[in-house]
Amino acid sequence: MKRFLALLTMLVLILPLTATASTWTLDPDHSTVQFKVKHLMINNVKGVFEKVSGTLNLDDKDITKSKVDVKIDTASVNTHIKKRDDHLRSADFFDAAKFPAMAFTSTKVEKVGTDKLKIAGNLTIKGVTRPVILDVEGFSTEVKDPWGNIRRGAEATTQVNRKDFGVNWSKTMDNGGMVVAEDVAITLEVEFIKK
């Protein structure tokens, strides 16, 4: 029994030294979720979602064991044009009243080179979930801010077809083009604070 207790005590002391995973919270004040989509097939319309939250479980020893979850408030869409933003919140696009959040949950993390990752996961928009892959630069090295918080940052990009998620509204122009293109480029620039 004494030998068992000694072994248990040793494990309790060693485990914190061998743990490599850490938990991080997304800082919404220093993170942005941007999108870009062609309008009339001639110009890009850009916008942001102003309310975003998330967590990162980061394993520095084996980055492939890391996980990330992000939620985006659909009503927080902002293209700086009120009429357009109201239309984007409507059932024609995000239907923010019925589907108040979009979500991304990672399923696989793959290291690419020295500082790039491919993060596969499930993106849910308007209740429709599809697999997507984020191309990620980072996560940066840890820095300590002037208030004592430990931070890391990353930038992720992907492209989705909005119709895959039931975001179908558009009109056909005389030349056969669409008022709003189907492909949407998404960029996330995020900072995380260590718990």
Automatic annotation (TrEMBL):
Task: State the name under which the record lists this protein.
Answer: YceI family protein
Family matches, as PANTHER family:
PROTEIN YCEI
Concerning SUPFAM superfamilies, the annotation shows: YceI-like (SSF101874)
What keywords are annotated for this sequence in UniProt?
A: Signal
Enumerate the spans annotated as Lipid/polyisoprenoid-binding YceI-like domain: 23-193
Tagged with keyword Signal = yes
The organism sits in which domain of life? Bacteria
Q: Which InterPro entries match?
A: Lipid/polyisoprenoid-bd_YceI, TTHA0802/YceI-like_sf
Secretion signal span: 1-21
The yes or no answer to whether the keyword Signal is present is yes
Instruction: State the organism named in the record.
Output: Pelotalea chapellei
**Where are the coiled-coil regions?**
none
